[in-house]
């Protein structure tokens, strides 16, 4: 939920707002689209990543404490339910995290913020696992 206080410090503001969140998403999908190590999660996505990019941007905006764009457009994210049709195990989680952590590393973030976001993304990715290995 977006803070009522425009001066409240959120991860969204600390990363650099809308422009930075879009950059993070673009870098994430560039890695997913090009790294051989991410081929399994890439195969779960449509050929054209335009919609995927926009939905992740909208979700991350709200997840980081900015505008609740995803919720406004689609309702509650219900991430596990929306991802349930896709077999997500340890391998897929690790591939997703590889791309996201590489994208985070590309961003001009304070080390403590980057580490905190990496931990939060790891928790989020763990939550998506729906398959045993």
UniProtKB/TrEMBL annotation:
Gene3D superfamilies, sorted: Globins
Higher taxonomy: Bacteria, Pseudomonadati, Pseudomonadota, Gammaproteobacteria, Methylococcales
Record protein name field: Group 2 truncated hemoglobin YjbI
Keyword Transport set for record: yes
Entry's family note: Belongs to the truncated hemoglobin family. Group II subfamily.
SUPFAM superfamilies: Globin-like (SSF46458)
Organism annotation: Methylocaldum szegediense
Keywords of the record: Heme, Iron, Metal-binding, Transport
Gene name in the database record: yjbI
Keyword Transcription appears in the UniProt entry: no
